[in-house]
Amino acid sequence: MMGLRAREVFHMFRSLVLSLTLLGAPGVAHEAPKQAAPTKEAEKAEAFFGHEELVRQFKLHETGCKKGNPMECFNLGLAYAQGVGVARDEARAATFFKKACDKDYLDACNNLGIAYAQGVGVKKDPKQALTLFEKSCKADDAKGCFNAGQAYASGLGVEKDPARAVTAFEKACGRGHADGCFSLGIAYANGNGVNKDPARAATLLSQACDAGNMASCNSVGVSYMAGNGVTRDMKRAVALFEKACDANVAGGCLNLGIAHKQGNGVTKNPERSRELIQKACGLGLAPACQALGTAPKAP
What keywords were assigned to this record (predicted)? Predict the structure, then answer.
């Protein structure tokens, strides 16, 4: 039962963090004051390429954008968003994302949508964010569909509409978006916006896991441990929990620790169980800390 609770808690945390956090679109700016310090990405780039090379690349992007190349306007927006080769300036980043989006460069539309959703470099405007995500989705962009789905699921710029969220997640998943498949799988698992279907949920969560969404690996592991929508297979569940835990998914570590404690799909190992539950607690999962009798670490 604790493993199932861990999954629920983890899913709740994911839903609270609006996954508009630039899934698949590199370099989106996070909320910060003007002239903020360069991002970690910018620091890594400078360490690798050197400042002079980054300035040279920035000037090339600037020239290309002036010539009307939307990809170069997008790259220029990323440079300003991260502070790569230029002082970080989120307002200018948004300006160049808009230039690129106006010419239907869809990654720029997604980044601009996130800026409006978060109020980064522009005045916060959830409705405009949704409009931009829908524009990308209508052009068959997976990230745009996923972000539109998140907006409908959370009520960003629109009344919550689980059915429309499912439609958008379906489209994103069909285009290989791992987080879209995860969100769609959770919708089928919970019957949210669609008829509850544990077997369909397990299939989608497996697909998301294979595509790199590690939270899905934990979730489908719970399905295999419980035999929910799939034939019960505790060894497979353990392998999935281990994959999730290796990627620092707290719920995966807790569920793997419980498996080691109870001997489900693996030989009982109380010492290993405690190590795994401690890791889950260190990652901030309250039920894991409660199992240890300690308080979770601050994020």
Answer: Signal
Mean pLDDT for the stretch of residues 95-121? 97
DSSP letter for each residue of the chain: -HHHHHHHHHHHHHHHS-TTTTTTSTTPPPS--TTPPPPHHHHHHHHHH-HHHHHHHHHHHHHHHHTT-HHHHHHHHHHHHHTSSS---HHHHHHHHHHHHHTT-HHHHHHHHHHHHHTSSS---HHHHHHHHHHHHHTT-HHHHHHHHHHHHHTSSS---HHHHHHHHHHHHHTT-HHHHHHHHHHHHHTSSS---HHHHHHHHHHHHHTT-HHHHHHHHHHHHHTSSS---HHHHHHHHHHHHHTT-HHHHHHHHHHHHHTSSS---HHHHHHHHHHHHHTT-HHHHHHHT-PPPP-
Q: Which of 271, 287, 275, 193 is nearest to 242 (CA)?
A: 275
Residue 182 makes CB contacts below 8 A (sequence gap 6+) with 204, 205, 208, 213, 215, 216, 219
pLDDT at position 133 is 98
Cα–Cα distance, 64 to 61 (Å, whole number): 5
Tokens at residue 257, please?
């620790």
277: its two tokens: 């539950």
Alpha-carbon gap, residue 281 to 154, rounded angstroms: 28
User: Which of 8-17, 79-88, 125-134, 240-249 is predicted least confidently?
Assistant: 8-17
Give 248's Cβ-side CA count (13 Å radius). 3
Quote the CA–CA distance of 76 and 80 in Å, as a whole number.
6
